[in-house]
Amino acid sequence: MEIQYLGTAAAEGLPALFCSCDTCKRARELGGKELRSRTQSIVDGKLLIDFPPDTYIHAQRESLQLGKIQHLLVTHSHMDHFFPVELIHRHEHFGHNAKGMLHVYGNEAVEKSFYEAVLIDRFKVHPLDEAVKFVRLEPFRDFWAEGYHIIPIPADHDKRETCFIYIIEKDGKCLLYGHDTGMNLSDEAWECIFSHKFDLVSLDATMGMKQIDGYHMGLLDDIAFVQLLEERQCVTSSTVKVVNHFSHNGKMTHGQLEEFAERHGMRAAYDGMKVLF
Q1: Which class is 2-276 in CATH?
Q2: Secondary element (H or E) of residue 241
Q3: How many C-beta atoms surround the C-beta of residue 116 within 10 A?
Q4: What are the pLDDT digits (tens) for 163-197?
Q5: Whole-model pTM over 0.85
Q6: Beta-carbon neighbour count of residue 96 at 10 Å?
Q7: 105 φ, ψ to 5°?
């Protein structure tokens, strides 16, 4: 399997849109890997994870043919992970020769956002019935999409909705995609995670060296998370461990993140990074 990190920032981007803190000023000055768009990933060029406002830029920058994508996993309804109004452009009027149906998978809040966006009056002349289909997910109810076995697991994020992290399996490979979440997962969620052996683990590192009680993780939480997986023999020395989803509030440059990650057997994601595992 291969995962590509199309965007690696938290909701405000990095540098943040209206911010002049030291971290954002430094990112503007240094450029390169310090510049981060909102978090999105793609697995094997087939399975898209999340749909932020920066999706258009990601497709342009990486020469992605998004009209060929037929499966989109959405973690939760927050704007930086789901910007549904763009989906109208998959209609034949805007997106000629798009391949088949795009299936959008998500929770009840994502479903509500989806229909509120695509059913507004000005889009009614371009119905998406033949182009985009929403599929409501339930916690732990596994499903298959284009040969991928997928399990949605309730995250520790926004209590107003059932946010998901995902276990994705195919051809003997297994990925844990853990964005956005803290560590206060339910016993059932941990049990499901502990029942798998992972080839790649991708973890939320929004807070940098800070720690908060849930909602997001920081680097110290990531270490603790991996230790739990090691204790249950869910990961090995060959498992790829990636930290991702960075905020200027974490106050770390990519170089600092990279140095920390390397010391702890991890990799710090950056926009465009590909990992084959």
Answers
A1: alpha beta
A2: strand 240-244
A3: 11
A4: 999 999 999 999 999 999 999 999 999 999 999 99
A5: yes
A6: 8
A7: -105, 130
